Write the structure tokens for this entry.
Amino acid sequence: MRAVYGGIADDMIHLAQREQLKDRGLWALVAKQFYGSPDDADRGWRGEYWGKLMRGACMTWEYTKDRELYAILAESVNMLLGAQEEDGRISTYSREAEFEGWDIWCRKYVLLGLLHFYEICQEQALAEKVLEAACMHLDYIIAHIGREEGKKRITLASDNWLGINSSSILEPVVRLYMVKPQKRYLDFADYIVENGGAEGFDIFRAAYEDRLYPYQYPVVKAYELMSCFEGLLYYAQVKRDARWEQAVIRFADRLLESEATIVGGSGCLHELFNHSALMQTGTAYDGLMLETCVTVTWMKLMARVYQLTGQMKYLEEVERSAFNALYGAVNTENSVCGPDTTFDLPIYRAAYDQGVLESGGKGQIFDSYSPLRAGIRGRAVGGFKTMEQGTAYCGCCIAIGAAGCALAPAVAARDIPEGIEIGIYLPGKITTTAGGARVELLVDTRYPAEGEVAITVHVSQEADFALLLRIPSFAESVGAFVNGKAQENLRQGAFWRLWRRWKTGDQVKLSLEFSPRLAYGMENLEDPGSSRHVAVLYGPLALARDRRLGTVGTPVRLEAGSFSVRRTEDVGFPCQCGFVVSDGQETFYMVDYASAGKTWRRDSETEVWMPMEKE
């Protein structure tokens, strides 16, 4: 299947490609880390950036097929391979300090980056060179890590987070085995799973037994935990082990129940699972929440579970996270960290004083944290590291964001055995084959700003196949028409299956009815009526107040049945949709969350959860 979309999803991908992934200076910066002075002093993570960027860039190229981008990636891969030592070692750590801190985590990303490029590589000789380097890279790790005498246990190869950061190398180990099925690679994957993922606690067995929520584990670092379960799903499918597939599904279900936030993503205590569904309106709040690394990994895990199960709830979580938390973190206005953002965080104050974080010029392409209560964007650079003798910097969220932007259109539609399934409505053209014919689907929509979707079919010959269309769970009602004829028996929260003989010119129309609705905070599970915060939702979007449109942080009196909302185009800055909201006494503006807070200054302070005025 090949899809070329328009709208916000396409805009975000091309912005990341243009402003970040084609920046040869950035690629040189992250590759040089494997040539320069060792990253030993604080056992840091400078070695992760190259692989994270490469993964996102390859996913982006799979969508854009941009020749210049591919050439830049090939150059960077060759530069990285030049840093590989004769025994296969690729690391930013010295040999004396290797396999401590974040070393295996960084080597994981080197391996992932090489494998993602291998999958898109257009030159056979280079592909063979990359695969050989990946094998040598992993062989060096296997020679030093494992259960055998003289080797270090993988969960002791880091003193961070009970070693789950090291265990997350499971994913690229299995993926390399899928390309190069050598027994030693599957044996190493067996070892990682048998070791349990965390030192002294088996996270995989805990998920399978399904007795704990992830925030109840002894290690709650959200990004790394989910990375381990991404790897476990690859492992389960290669081993054809239904037990471990079930463990991943149960883990994802526990996350949806306890950790999902109103804008998607998770982690409302910095980057940690902390029962975010409850704590997203909690009082222990400093704005450093919903880390973009967590959001992207959350989306990737939910997408994989959707592809495994076909259950809509996982896809809807990908959609919610993309249209809200992720796109809100994309720096569409080239905003920069400055005095009223980073100065209250000492680590960034020092970098600002040294001129590394500039008050003007080009800003980082992705923000690291997303506020839900009154706060500002751009407050910190997650995973911040200075490089080039302190004259440049990068961060984990800066490096991972492009992968998230590329993911949403990648999962929006897919081939299925009986035909084609469309789960996220993006305007554009989908080209594939079904029923023995070449099929083009032209999708015309302004979703999620509006609920009208028109799909026009073009086929090389008349063909029998099914077209499955998602009817969102939040749709209040739905109208459906095939060539103007009304359809019946459509159900919200399910796929509508249209099996027919298709011919060119056939048209399907959906009219998804959704209007703003209220959501209440869960501050007290014992007393749902005691909520102190309220939010407004519209379709898959969370709406937000923005200081550019009025006050933020003031109490509101919104109650179901006694508030009114109308659309408006009079907002004054770009947004997917704007609304005028009235609680019967006060009137205020709201926009979609992804469009709010974009100046990264106090003048666009934003909030989704609004305090409620109580009688």
Observations:
- The radius of gyration is 24 Å.
- The chain is about 35% helix and 20% strand.
